[in-house]
Design brief:
22% of the residues are buried. The chain has a domain of 83 residues: Ribosomal protein L13 (Ribosomal Protein L13p, Chain: A). The strands form 2 sheets. The protein has a 4-stranded parallel β-sheet with strand order 5-2-1-6, covered by helices on one side. It has a two-stranded antiparallel sheet with strand order 3-4. It has 147 residues and is an alpha/beta fold.
């Protein structure tokens, strides 16, 4: 048996990871399905050199975030809970009211909850850029469109 055949597992690190820029159009997409796909792109699970403890993901620009779909009666039944930190400062609002107040926040909130908690998850979330309309400032980044 030859002794020069060794198997080496290669782990990604900050120097070897290449971050790309991806564009996702959320118009007409179901909220949970697009959120799980984008969370996977932010983690880098679509890359061959994915390493769980390294930020391997790409920058993701989402446009038309206010045109995302919710199935069933979730626009009126789903409640978003906020707390100001003061006694009696709890506020409940429906998904419809939340999107009217902050058009991109519903998508951001659902994606953030699917990322790891801690410093690594915060670093991944910083690479997410959500816009309510079609206008964004990342045109010079040579965005790849993701269906």
């Amino acid at each position: 048996m030859p002794t020069n055949l060794t198997r080496i597992t290669v782990s990604a690190n900050k120097k070897t990871v290449k971050h790309e820029w991806l564009l996702v159009d959320a118009e007409g997409q179901v909220l949970g399905r697009i959120a799980s796909k984008v969370a996977s792109l932010l983690r880098g699970k679509h890359k061959t050199y994915y390493t769980p403890h390294v930020d391997c993901g790409d920058h993701v620009v989402i446009i038309n975030a206010e045109k995302v779909r919710l199935t069933g009666k979730k626009w009126d039944d789903m409640e978003i809970d906020r707390y100001s930190g003061y006694p009696g400062g709890r506020t409940l609002e429906t998904a419809r009211e939340y999107v009217n107040r902050k058009p991109a926040a519903l998508l951001e909130r659902s994606i953030k909850s699917m990322l790891p908690k801690g410093p690594l998850g915060r670093a991944m979330f910083r690479k997410l850029h959500v816009h309510a309309g079609t206008a964004h400032k990342y045109t010079s980044q040579k965005l790849k469109t993701i269906k």
